[in-house]
Amino acid sequence: MERPVRKPNRLRGYDYSQPGCYFVTICTKERLPLLRRGAQCAPASDLPPLTEAGRAVEQAIKGISEHYEMISVDKYVVMPNHVHLLLRIENDGRTLCA
Questions:
Q1: How many separate helices (H) and strands (E) can be counted in the chain?
Q2: What is the C-alpha radius of gyration for the chain, rounded to an integer number of angstroms?
Q3: What is the mean pLDDT of residues 69-89?
Q4: Using CA atoms, how far apart are residues 95 and 61, in angstroms rounded to an integer?
Q5: Within the chain, what is the greatest distance between any pair of CA atoms?
Q6: Which of 18, 16, 77, 75 is nearest to 47 (CA)?
Q7: What is the pLDDT of residues 16-55, one digit of tens each?
Q8: Residue 58 neighbours by CB distance under 10 Å
């Protein structure tokens, strides 16, 4: 199946390694519901339980600041087929490398 051409969603010339708050969405391959069991559109307060893969993703999210001391996760939500993260990059005078 051919996917539609998407318009770029990044600012041209913007350095995404600079300090700030970034909203990140990561989708599963083919948008398969691998991370939670149950309804796709459940309200956030009534999310279905995480699968084993979902628990691994959540554990990795919680460990981000341990591996990258200048990055913190302000908020996140693991949905059945995607993850939303609000990442904060702090500056201590060093250059970040992706």
A1: 2, 3
A2: 16
A3: 94
A4: 22
A5: 46
A6: 77
A7: 888 999 999 999 999 999 999 876 555 556 778 999 999 9
A8: 16
Residue identified by tokens 């904060």 is 88
Tokens of 97: 């490398």
C-alpha span between 55 and 17 (Å, rounded) = 28
Pairing of strands 82-89, 71-78: antiparallel
Could you tell me the two tokens for 6? 């998407």
- Tokens representing 78 are 């693991």
Specify the range with the lowest mean pLDDT, choosing from 15-24, 62-71, 76-85, 87-96: 87-96
- Global pTM value: 0.76
Q: What is the Cα–Cα distance from 92 to 60, expressed in whole angstroms?
A: 24
